[in-house]
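Q: What does the assembly look like in three dimensions?
Context provided by user:
Components: two
Sequences:
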Amino acid sequence: MEPGNGGFVRAPRTVGAGVFMVLIGLFALYHSWGLTTGTTRQIGPGMIPQSLSVLLAICGVLLIVEGFVTRGEKLEAWKIRGPLFILGAVVIFGLAIKPLGLLLAAPLAMGIGGLASSETRPREIAIFAVVMTVFCLGLFKYALSLPIPLAPWLIGY
Amino acid sequence: MIELIDNLGTGFSTALSLQNLGLCFLGVLIGTVIGVLPGVGPIATIAMLLPLTFKLDPTGALIMLAGIYYGAQYGGSTSAILVNIPGEATAVVTTLDGHQMARQGRAGIALGVAALGSFFAGSVATLVIAALAVPLTKLALLFGPADYFSLMVLGLAFAIVLARGPLLPAFCMIVVGLLLSTVGTDLETGEERLTFGMPNVVDGIDFAVLAMGIFGFAEILRNLENPEVRDVSRTAIGRMLPTREDVRRCVKPVLRGTFVGGLLGILPGNGAVLGPFASYTLEKKLSKRPKEFGSGAIEGVAGPESANNAGAQTAFIPLLTLGIPPNAVMALMVGAMTIHGIIPGPQVMTKSPDLFWGMIASMWIGNALLLIINMPLIPLWVRMLRVPYHLMFPAILIFCCIGIYSVNNSPNDVILTAFFGFFGYALYKFGFEPAPLLLGFVLGKLMEEKLRQAMVLSRGSFTTFIENPVSAGLLFLTVIVVVVAVLPSIRKSRDEVL
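A: Here is the predicted structure of the complete assembly.
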């Protein structure tokens, strides 16, 4: 990682981190605003989340200040490929498991997930996905008898 | 003393049943595999394998999960020595001298010393746990809500101080973790907090969902971006049994490592990670030949490896006696216990002695098993290290998906995990180390509960935390820990060690 330049923002990554924390703090504060705060004697459901949100936002501000004062690292580039395909695969699995069942959801997720790496070869991942699906079927469904739908559209469960 | 032997007797008779022995074996075997493989951590694995334990009785389940944990610590050293990649974070120090030894054709000796040192340390740690369990549990029963709260504050302070990297981001992670723990129905009034209308978080965010997202999936993303070069040592492993001279050089480092690691492991707030570093620094300072360190000094493998294993095991002490998990893996064990209807804490020992002592005894058995299975299996681990990551991650991915789905049979949980995966990725990009987050999350609920109880008891006065001697002592210790960490000179040496 390269150090940041000597420009106005000396540690861009720290500033980014601070902004991120401030945003989380404000978001949580906004959404816990309506809850009863209570008193110290009878602490309400809102007091803890509200005070933690404020604390987090303050820490975020401190991080931002630190990023302007001390020298630190540059912001790292965000890759799209990895998060898109890996997390996309997870979401697809979540959406597909009930209606389509494991027999389709598992190879689908592995196929999509495989796209996340540039080293993946189509044939290899296809064979691998089939083998892994059979393995998972044996392990989770038969050996452990977990209630996972297999192929509701075909065999009804 | 007689009580101790009696208790261990109960433990061994539970742990030596055929089923538990098999589960212990399975646990340490899986643990070693994930320990050897870089890029697959124990946190993600335990979260992934939780559904495997649903069908088991709680004792068997915990014996297996514990086996995975210390098996992973053990396997981590194998890849550190052979491939120069720490399979686990705690094996970083072992790469320094261990891999150098491998390059000099002494890989077998390094592995052998690591194994024997770990076994010794593990055995001692088991005895320490057994000996400390009863007095600490009795102590814990005297704790009031204020004391508990202060103890957890101390734990979090340790977690911040011992986390890698600067203090402020680590503190932020704790706060985010605490904040996430407030999501769900309020325990007193039943009001929904920060649930955003999602039915699957009404009872709070599931620990497995959070852990799998932030550690499992974010770990895959991280590994894909930093492809590592594996230099699988082609040199022969050579003899594994250390020579008389090697043994002579290792005895004291192993003893010191066991002591240092075991002591640090007891600390709430992940002291176990510090063990290997502390031991390495200590050995280098005490050595007559400090220059040999970094170029294959056997003491530099023996000490840290013993410290690592001792710490990994004494880390169970706060969990088993006080019900407070000291690190993220122990936090997962809490999750596993709760799934099986056991609330961790001082009452476990009295209510289910079989489980308590069985688990402790299984640790010693597990260590013996590790010693026996690892020696002959090393060639297999070497071959496994050649499996490319682009074939490993789809397998991890699908195991994680099925694992998460099975915890509650909820597709929404799977999607929420993806969200936390993205959150973990963002944290990584901003340079945060997420381990303290998980600890904050786990302690958060209990802390809030104890805080509210304490405040009701004291009629809204915060002085209860200072008036109460135990609580005051713990808070005083917290202040010392924080002040010491912030002092410039100590901060510098902390940066060197971590």
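Follow-up: The first helix of chain A runs from residue 12 to 32.
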